[in-house]
């Protein structure tokens, strides 16, 4: 067995979800909404599977979906893409990430990773033969600094893997940070693989700006999106990859020997969904922001210290004011004694983990959030845990 995967422990997401099921806890750990997703998009998928084509679709994705992706990103982010040579459909964003890393990395190449980071990044980089170089981001703002980037980049840097908006920090990087990173990519001739699955889940009037749009980055960026996040249909696993033709040729070959293709009925439904008018996207953000505010206000009213959440489904709690210094032990007590499952943010670090931040998923119905708040009242500052 290859030790990179064989020696991996069970993920904290699985552990906490299992504990939630075992104890009957309110599960605010794993990041998925408890809403079924937009009915019209789901109806299109059902219609397509009954009346449409169910054999192999084109390896690069249905032409109608690739055209819809081009039109969608032209409208929302001002990107000019070619549907035939610069767009590919994958079976989820994680497959897109795996394929990109396999295509771009040769053994010994250095890959810059930003902690906290999605747990799939590091094993995929190592399995591709990459050598990780970590940039540690710290709360409450998780900024990209000149000093940290200078320490991570080197003449052997080949790939930079960026998640923006950032899970679990719920941060949307400001333009000055992205320009700083773009300058390092240009200087070191590095390719940026940008996991931008949360690009539509941003709040308070923000608009996502892709790294691909920055000067000098169009030819050196692989942009990855996710229909699962855009439409709150996390089980669908339909991803988008966008890159210049010279990069896409290698990315397509990696995809060809991974999943090869993606269910055509889901592709047809996503093509329909991407063409929905702005009211859907604006309404989705308003609904999630309202849930965020409801949960954040409830936590603050109980005396907890809540970190800012500019995007994603997540809200973070600073447990240091509670006298806590071990987020893993805290989350285990939280689920067993108080009936609420959360995720310790230290699980997203490899080097120098932050151990006083706990992540909650607020993409839930009001009654789910209210039940969690009722249970968390027993943990409010000044009361015993």
Automatic annotation (TrEMBL):
NCBIfam families: PRK08912.1
Highest taxon listed in the record's lineage: Bacteria
Keyword Transferase: yes
Name of the protein this chain belongs to: 8-amino-7-oxononanoate synthase
Reaction equation(s) it catalyzes: L-aspartate + 2-oxoglutarate = oxaloacetate + L-glutamate
InterPro entries, per the entry: Aminotransferase_I/II_large, Kynurenine-oxoglutarate_AT, PyrdxlP-dep_Trfase, PyrdxlP-dep_Trfase_major, PyrdxlP-dep_Trfase_small
Its EC number(s): 2.6.1.1
Signal peptide (UniProt feature, chain positions): none
Gene Ontology molecular function terms on file: kynurenine-oxoglutarate transaminase activity; L-aspartate:2-oxoglutarate aminotransferase activity; pyridoxal phosphate binding
GO cellular component: cytoplasm
One protein family per Pfam: Aminotran_1_2
Ranges for domain Aminotransferase class I/classII large: 26-376
Subunit-level organization: Homodimer.
UniProt record similarity statement: Belongs to the class-I pyridoxal-phosphate-dependent aminotransferase family.
Cofactor annotation: pyridoxal 5'-phosphate
Keywords: Aminotransferase, Pyridoxal phosphate, Transferase
